[in-house]
Amino acid sequence: MTRLLLAFAVCISVFATTALAQESKTPEGDKPTIFTRAPCDPLPDMLETIAKYKEDLLFIGDGMTFSAQTGRPNNGGMMFFVNQDTGTWSMLQLFGDGMSCMIMNGKSFKPFTGPSYFANTPTNSN
């Protein structure tokens, strides 16, 4: 029983040390940052996946993500697809070498019908 408790204490201290080490990598005063993993494939392959959900292209744009390893920005195009019947949606980032990454996807897509978010902010009021 003592060995079991000792093993448990060692495991807790290892996890606590790991968490503290990860927290200490962020400079004081920095905003929280998340690191995600995005599946990537050549664009034609990624479009096959999106086609399985019968999502159509809704809008395109230019955007940027940041490398988890270096923090360096990655510029690329963006495509947003949605199935307006089922509410599923997908967002791809496109790169110059023909690769694309699914940055986000989800369900419950619906148009926003509320008031303008910025209508009453101090920067927009007269």
Layout: helices, strands, pairs:
Layout: H1 2-24, E1 40-42, H2 43-52, E2 56-66, E3 73-82, E4 89-94, E5 99-106
Antiparallel strand pairs: 1-5, 2-3, 3-4, 4-5
Quick gist of this model?
The chain is an alpha+beta fold and 126 residues long. The protein has helices at residues 2-24, 43-52, and strands at residues 40-42, 56-66, 73-82, 89-94, 99-106.
Give structural notes.
The chain is an alpha+beta fold. The chain has a domain at 40-106. It contains 2 helices and 5 strands. The chain is globular, with a radius of gyration of 22 Å. The N and C termini lie far apart (72 Å).
Number of beta-strand segments: 5
Strand order of the largest sheet: 1-5-4-3-2
The main β sheet shows up as: 5 strands, antiparallel
| SSE succession | HEHEEEE
Arithmetic mean of pLDDT = 78
Distance between the termini: 72 Å
Q: How many helical elements?
A: 2
